[in-house]
Amino acid sequence: MNDRPRISHKQSIIQLTTLLFSVAALGSSPAIAQSPPPANSSSETSSTVSNSNENPSILASYYNYRDYEEVVRQTASMVGNADAQSLAQQYGLNILDITWEDTGRYYNSAVGPNISDMTIQVQQHNPISDEYKLSLMPVIRHPNFSDESADVPLDRFFLLVGNEKNQDLKRVSLREFLGDLRGYLHEPESWAGEKNSLLADRDTHVLVSAQACFLPIPQGSNAKFNPVLFNYQSYQENPAVLTILATREGTSVTIIDNVRDGFEAGMTWGQRLFFNQNGERASFTGQRLSDFQGESGDVRTPTVEAAGEEGLNMVMLIQVPLKQKEPLMPPAPIGFGGVSLLSGEAMAMPDSNVEAAVIGHGEIEGPFTEIDNLAIERDPDFPIRVTVQFYKATSNGVVSQKDMQDIREQIDRVYEDADYVGSLVVDGPSNRPTEYDGSKLEPPNWWDEFWKRHEENTGQSREEALEMLRRLRGENWMPRSPQELQEELDRL
Known about the structure:
The protein has one domain. Helices cover about 25% and strands about 25% of the residues. The protein is built from ten helices and 21 strands. The protein has helices at about 10-25, 40-50, 55-75, 80-90, 175-180, 290-295, 400-415, 445-460, 460-475, 480-490; strands at about 95, 100, 115-125, 130-135, 140, 150-155, 155-160, 170-175, 205-215, 220-230, 240-245, 250-255, 270, 275, 280-290, 305, 310, 315-320, 355-365, 385-395, 420-425. The chain has a 17-stranded mixed β-sheet that branches. A four-stranded antiparallel β-sheet has the order 8-7-16-17. The longest helix has 21 residues, at about 55-75. The two termini are about 10 Å apart.
């Protein structure tokens, strides 16, 4: 593997793996962790029918849920598919379900003074049990650990604004937007104090990476999803980053504190990001481009632009570093972004049906939080990070060589506009304008400090967080054997 998990010491892995192996019950099959029975097992179906035969509409909803659950499962399984991972690696890429989108990382380390984990999460509701289920969607990008990035001039990025005030969309540069952020808020008074700008003198360039994000979308249907960001330094009333999410429908701004806007399914790793519809929040939706064209007949609508790239399926996730009131010792990340366990199953694969996914938004879900009445201020020690995302639709999780080649070329086109391309993690000292100011050496023994702050902020213990992530990542996060576990330990 090219990536090292975000883990500070072996004991944490050993404790976690004890839990995983006890849950997986390897017993009779020591080489492969056992998977739960499929949702459409005959026993479940029989029970469902007997319990719901007096309400056909609920039963129909259940069968729709079950069919879509299989699409979600197949899409999520890309991360654990050996053939897909091998194909990605031929193009210098990885398939991941948690990506590292950091504004500052120490040399040759998974740790940094301002680091974030990003996931794409889909939530499903079982109409029979009334339970919710979360799934992490696959992302294809350069390996997490080396984090190859580009320095692109700030003036090469453009957003659409107006959605936050229910006005017609208009295009503004990212520089204009950051220079008068208060003017682009639904509630300008939610930003305490009198500042208007989050620009810093260092902002000649922004730190850029690009990726392809997959959504489970059958033909004629759509997906409801949320990007989710966990920033390791942020906590309640003391955010370390502000996020700007820019789509073809507008731009949405919120601070990250890791505790707001949870799922009905319960806590997750990070904070959900939403679309701001005139001060109300809505989850995002994805629709196949072919279906969108069939409905609208016209794709010549304004879009966001990043380094010359634009499109209906493009989203920019922008992180603006903020000064913290009480800077705390940055934590050692816990290791959820680099390990993917490959199934290696040999079976006939269906054909790829990947195409661009047009990004929109769904129904209103409640008030949208912007600055949360905080007196935020830009931290000039760190660069702005722009993660350019190209969304893709699939109904079976199959990617062809042509798909992977197209993804690599799309990523490369973003990097082509850069003044510098490389790794701020493994390439050593540089004069890049996006290198953060401060020590580049990883301090030891920060693990306990992180867990203390995490539990104080969320009420979630280390054990509860690890179990939650095991549920989220499922079999993709389980060692297939004790031997594989030992190999991972030896790499640390």
